[in-house]
């Protein structure tokens, strides 16, 4: 078994969730690395969409941001932000990968403020494209590098980006497209999905050496637990080799 | 229209369609007259204290940095900004020239949040309203279309909507709820392009971000270009013109105008410079030292280029990918 | 939303945003699979009786004529059309395949009104609703944006609005009256382009009319191209892709596919052919003879090319202007 | 004095109304010829806009339609119909040139039907871009080749394209942009403007040999007559030479 760090494991787990022959919106950081790894492993025909207009890029080299030249290098179209967002709004984009400072049990995310809105205790970056991605993509996958009770919270300080809002039917009630919503959460402890009926977050798989109790204890809200908990396979030697030698050889992220 | 819900965020710029029409009718020059000028002339002539300013870019890519630095050197105050931005907004905030922000995302992507934004907003010095990236661009698009608002399915059900000035209504055709975004007409737009002619006809390589929309949403538009080309080149490929001359008030020749950001196919971003800035920006004194050295120090963009050093810039050129 | 005025025109296609989303989710192929096929295969597979059909063109320029002739040969019935068009709509009307028309302009520009349109509408065979050119294109644009309606200041105060299905409301931001146009989602879009790859990534030279919008507003999209190019060419200039592959269901190689219309930079329009048609179209028997000879006669586009004659087509190529 | 036909005169009169250093929307036929002539006479910097996206074309060769390659030959931008119409909607286009089957005293135009709406006695082409042009351009100029009581009517069968609707303030009341509206009508008998106060059509100039009584009699509605009626100068030898040899040497229109 290869030696690896937590970030590398997170990238591998996220990567495996990326389905070949679909279009996925990816943001900077782990989603980008995961997409690049997926394209070199099991999903060569994954079409990666970036919000500033690049779609279908080769990802030969790792972009530094969602609009740099690597996001449309050898791409199939290089348009603009409206076209990218409207492609999602029209229902063409299957997956969206997001992150956040806080997530609640319905998969809602906060990337705006800690404390009250203004002036806030901590001003975070804001929605960026996350709100659009989570409003329009069919399935969203949240990546949370640090699974603890400050990040998996009962109540968000600010609901930046919609998950299942306050429960079943509330997305549709708010006007969001039917049959869309959060799909998975990847954290440093494991992978969560959502209970079909209650739309509440549910532990599906833990990372090796992590117990389901640890996941529950590190979540402020009551984390549901699936009847059968899988264990995420560790990064394979091949995954690590490709990740280190081809995805991020300059060690920009890992 | 019966409004089901109204965002409580302040509407910093009213969607005044008639005012915009009257303004462009009275002020916009529809003639083929050279608009080439220095960035000092352009900013002095077309940016006023209190203006609502928009910059077009993708993160640090194709950012109108030379124009932004000149706005700061001239100390244009009480600005309103729309961002989606990074380095250029950090600089404007650090110079304490900004009163309000229609914010969608201001941060350093993978390198994390902006210390300068935090200080400006957490202190209560800068007021904010929040939007999504799509929403703010659709606000420009509505302005570019000459209509007072545009619907979207974004922002519904969230605090983002509650802290914006969007409104929720029921669609009279389908009965579904939609968010209406007020058009965002800018007093001044700043855009950096690959090439343009002296009249302001401009071309952009690669993705075009929201240049099309922002150019059309601006009462006054200052364009900087890596290269000034002959109008005959424009006429040969008119389908490559993304900004036609009649939208443009000033054309500034600014090679390396996006530095320390990237310009696709021209030069890679200056990672060292940005990492140093990012570190400096955590500290008020060091931020001021950066501003003194790179913004207030050089008297113009030529000076800035000399300060950065042509060898360094040539190196960045060598690092950029081709097609 | 309080509606101040509702057009009385029938809404031939409901702006079903959710239905469109579900449809593309279920049916659209997001994979890089060759979609090259003959026009017979494409039309047989993707056009159904009763479909709402849209063609993209500028008068007789860059018109999907080879595809239109195949739709007629296959006798697809009870079609709904949006036009803005000339020759292709005349042919579909002459073949009596059309039930309803969202019409903005159907005529021969300087050569006057369409006799075929007159017979079809004045007889009560074809129902109409009226729009402006801007309005119908903005209806495609709303669909392309994935929203149920879009506002405009066009059509206000006129019978055009009264005989459309637009609605007038008061803007909740400015208080001004605006017309809301329902999004127009097409069952099938037909577009002729300069070049595309086998997956459907397409480029267009010169003006792009409403190709961008119509391609994105179509559930099913059939593209014909003067030239099939390698995907490497697409990847080299991705900013020139106006239609990306995932919008496209079929790619048909159709040199001279716009004949007797023009294809800019490729061939000039066949004025003699069109003048003869225009004359023939005034008479029902002569119209039928034209249809028999040029539409039903040839079994496919290759046959049509032979019928017209390669010398004639080469002459049209020699008449087109360069850049 | 040169010999000329009615169409040539109409083109010359329309051409003289085209102001240098402005942007004008022109349609097929006489407006196109007039624009081409104007560019070669007094208005070299007239920027001609066509509704399918060509703007600033050379007009070296006469287009056959509003979207053919000559509408964007050596143009400054070749975009699409949305951009063209939105440029007008934003207030950038000064003049729009239109035609119609019927015009009323407020400059409203009919190009849709004769008789009732459906099924109509005569189905005309429809609005095309005319409604947009007349809604958004600052000043519209109508060109009517045949001035008679069937065309200058009391009541339109169908109001396709807005003039001053039913009188002062009614454009604004309908939601159309302030300070816009009909400016001139060019017919085979003369040139009409609009009374500032009543917004009703008013004869300003007659063609040589035409009396103001003829104009009044050939209008079904009550045509106002300006205090002082000018006489339109006949086409000059230079205008005719340029028109015949350079604007339309192939005799497509004249």
Give an account of the 3D structure:
The complex is a heterotetramer, with 2 copies of chain A (254 residues) and 2 copies of chain B (323 residues). Chain A is of the alpha/beta class and 254 residues long. Chain A has a single domain (6-247), classed as Glutaconate Coenzyme A-transferase. In chain A, 24% of the residues lie in helices and 21% in strands. Chain A contains 7 helices and 14 strands. Chain A has helices at residues 6-16, 30-40, 81-89, 130-136, 170-174, 212-217, 237-247, and strands at 23-25, 47-49, 54-55, 77-78, 95-98, 102-103, 109-110, 113-114, 122-123, 139-144, 181-187, 190-194, 201-206, 224-231. Chain A has an 8-stranded mixed β-sheet, with helices on both faces. A two-stranded antiparallel ribbon of chain A has the order 3-4. Chain A is globular, with a radius of gyration of 17 Å. The model of chain A has no long low-confidence stretch (mean pLDDT 95). Chain B is α/β, with parallel strands linked by helices and 323 residues long. In chain B, strands 2, 3, 4, 5, 9, 10, 11 and 12 form an 8-stranded mixed β-sheet that branches. In chain B, strands 1-7-8-6 form a 4-stranded antiparallel β-sheet, covered by helices on one side. In chain B, helix 2 (39-46) packs across helix 3 (65-73), helix 3 runs parallel beside helix 4 (87-94) and helix 6 crosses helix 8. Classes of the chains: A alpha/beta (254), B alpha/beta (323). The interface between A and C is medium-sized, with 30 and 29 residues.
Encode the helix/strand succession of chain A as letters.
Answer: HEHEEEHEEEEEHEHEEEHEH
| Strand order, sheet with most strands of chain A | 2-1-5-10-11-12-13-14
CATH architecture of chain A: 3-Layer(aba) Sandwich
Number of helices of chain B: 13
- Rg of Cα set of chain A: 17 Å
Percent of residues in helices of chain B:
25-40%
| Proportion of residues in β-strands of chain A | 15-25%
Topology, number of strands of chain A? 14
- Which outline of chain A best applies? globular
Q: Provide the helix percentage of chain A.
A: 10-25%
């Amino acid at each position: 078994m290869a030696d690896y760090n937590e970030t590398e494991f997170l990238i591998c787990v996220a990567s495996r969730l990326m389905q070949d022959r679909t279009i996925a919106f990816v943001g900077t950081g782990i989603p980008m690395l995961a997409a690049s790894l997926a394209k070199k492993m099991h999903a060569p025909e994954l079409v990666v969409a970036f919000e500033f207009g690049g779609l279908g890029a080769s990802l030969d080299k790792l972009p530094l941001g969602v609009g740099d030249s690597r996001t449309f290098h050898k791409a199939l179209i290089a348009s603009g932000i409206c076209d990218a967002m409207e492609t999602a709004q029209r229902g063409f984009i299957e997956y969206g990968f997001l992150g956040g400072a806080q997530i609640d049990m319905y998969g809602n995310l906060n990337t705006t403020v800690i404390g009250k809105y203004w002036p806030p205790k901590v001003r975070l970056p804001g929605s960026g494209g996350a709100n659009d991605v989570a409003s329009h993509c069919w399935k969203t996958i949240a990546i949370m590098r640090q699974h603890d009770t400050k990040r998996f919270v009962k109540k968000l300080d600010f609901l930046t980006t919609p998950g299942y809002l306050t429960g079943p039917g509330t997305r549709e009630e708010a006007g969001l497209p039917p049959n869309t919503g959060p799909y998975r959460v990847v954290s440093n402890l494991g992978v969560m999905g959502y209970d079909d009926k209650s739309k509440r977050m549910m532990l599906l798989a833990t990372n090796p050496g992590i117990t389901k109790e640890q996941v529950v204890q590190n979540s402020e809200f009551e984390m549901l637990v699936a009847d059968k908990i899988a264990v995420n396979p560790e990064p394979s030697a091949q995954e690590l080799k490709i990740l280190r030698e081809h995805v991020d050889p300059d060690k920009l992220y890992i | 229209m019966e409004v089901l819900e109204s965002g409580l965020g302040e509407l910093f710029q009213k969607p005044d369609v008639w005012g915009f029409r009257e303004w462009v009718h009275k002020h916009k020059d529809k003639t083929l007259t050279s608009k080439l000028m220095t960035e000092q002339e352009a900013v002095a002539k077309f940016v006023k204290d209190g203006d609502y300013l928009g910059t077009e870019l993708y993160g640090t890519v194709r950012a109108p940095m030379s124009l932004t630095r000149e706005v700061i050197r001239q100390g244009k105050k009480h600005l309103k900004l729309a961002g989606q931005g990074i380095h250029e907004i950090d600089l404007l905030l650090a110079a304490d020239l900004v009163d309000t922000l229609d914010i969608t995302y201001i941060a350093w992507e993978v390198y994390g949040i902006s210390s300068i934004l935090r200080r400006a907003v957490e202190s209560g010095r800068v007021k904010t309203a929040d939007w999504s990236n799509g929403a703010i661009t659709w606000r420009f698009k509505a302005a570019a279309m000459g209509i007072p608002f545009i619907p979207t399915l974004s922002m519904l059900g969230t605090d983002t909507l509650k802290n914006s000035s969007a409104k929720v209504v029921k669609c009279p055709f389908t009965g579904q709820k939609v968010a209406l975004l007020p058009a965002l007409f800018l007093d001044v737009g700043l855009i950096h392009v690959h090439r343009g002619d002296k009249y302001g006809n401009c071309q952009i390589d690669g993705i075009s971000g929201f240049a099309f929309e922002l150019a059309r949403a601006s009462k006054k538009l200052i364009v900087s270009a890596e290269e000034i080309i002959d109008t005959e080149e424009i006429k040969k490929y008119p389908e490559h013109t993304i900004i036609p001359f009649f939208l443009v008030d000033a054309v500034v020749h600014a090679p390396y105008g996006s530095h320390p950001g990237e310009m696709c196919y021209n030069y890679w971003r200056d990672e060292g410079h940005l990492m140093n800035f990012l570190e400096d920006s955590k500290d008020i004194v060091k931020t001021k030292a950066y501003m003194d050295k790179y913004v207030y120090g050089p008297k113009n963009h030529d000076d800035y280029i000399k300060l950065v050093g042509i060898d360094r810039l040539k190196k960045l050129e060598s690092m950029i990918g081709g097609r």
